[in-house]
Amino acid sequence: MTHFNVENYHAIPRSKKIQPRGDFSQMIAALEKQPWLHKKQTEMDALIEELDDAEQKTLIFELLGNFTYVCSHRLSDFLGGLAETISTQWGCTPHNTIIVALNRGQCADSSQAILWHLKPAMAKRGAWTPNLFVIDIEEAAKQCNQHTHIANVIIIDEFSGTGKTIDKELNRFKNQLNNASGLSIRIALVALMQDAFEKFPDFIDDFYFLEDMRPGISSHIEESKRPEAIEIMKTLEGKLAQVARDKKLKKHIFGWGKSEALYYYENGNTPNNVFPIFWWPEDVNGQQRLTLLNRV
Asked: Taking a C-beta distance cutoff of 8 angstroms, is the pair 43, 291 a contact?
């Protein structure tokens, strides 16, 4: 017989808003596909409150159902698989390899976070030391120029939406090298959009990733319904502030580079490639929004 222990009881929070039957059914369907939404009930209510009609709600719930969610367990899978690939498949050793974050400046960067998480996974696979984990591309180029024993460079990033940043930064890295011949350059990402592959530089020898995604509307929505879905999303983005926190909405229409990304990394900084309706901080009246996802 099971005994009820009040000390271990945690009530499921009740929604502050009663949803119509149709909205509720679609919300339940999205929750079944995306368990992480259970923790964002208040944010979900706020998002639904911004929607004007059944068509807008249907689109949003369909997009939510197609999100790629990377939780801490999936990240562990990625790190373990990457560490094994580096050591076994790629044959890299602490003597001839450096692992580098695709850092684009002096501010905190998600690539550095992934690099930091990779360190303990690599500790199980040889005498890897802290100096082999480099926090930016320029420092990596300096080390390659100073130490001729470096034969492998592994570039780490969290997410690629268009592939343009990777192309730009890796070409900049290669141009800083005194001698790129004989140097093997590989890249590892937690997630990327499929279209990003086409932008990767030809000199990348190999790559490793956990998740690859297709555009949210252009690929996931039934072809006959896409024109209507596009117009609905344009209407929804029309509810957002044109400028917020020094960012211009026109540069983020359908996500940066019109990536149409549907991606959530647990406790991560949402990429700007994601549809802004899910993370843009202010509405058209300049009021702060309670967003489903967060981005600084």
From this structure: yes
Predicted confidence at residue 18, as pLDDT, reads 61
Question: Residue-wise over 89-112: b if at least 16 C-beta within 10 A, else e?
Answer: ebebeeeebbbbbbbeeeeebbbb
Residue type, 198: E
Best CA proximity match to 196, nearest among 273, 254, 123: 273
What pLDDT was estimated at residue 5? 54
Q: How many CB atoms lie within 10 A of CB 262?
A: 25
Residues of the chain with CATH 3.40.50.2020: 71-213
Three-state DSSP string of 34-87: CHHHHHHHHHHHHHHHCCCCHHHHHHHHHHHHCCEEECHHHHHHHHHHHHHHHH
Tokens matching residue 128: 């890897």
CA distance from start to end of the chain: 50
Strand-strand pairing, 206-213 and 68-70: unpaired
Look up the pTM and report it. Answer: 0.90
pLDDT of residue 103: 87
149: Cβ–Cβ under 8 A, 6 or more apart, which residues?
Answer: 95, 96
What pLDDT, on a 0 to 100 scale, did the predictor assign at position 255?
Answer: 98
Half-sphere exposure of 194 (CA within 13 A, CB side): 6
pLDDT along the chain (296 residues), means of 10: 49 57 77 92 94 96 96 97 97 97 85 97 95 95 94 98 96 92 94 94 96 97 97 98 97 98 95 98 98 96
CATH T-level fold of 71-213: Rossmann fold (3.40.50)
Closest CA to 101 of 140, 69, 128: 140
Residue 60: Cβ within 10 Å count: 25
**Cα(133)–Cα(130) distance, integer angstroms:** 6
Tokens of 104: 């684009």
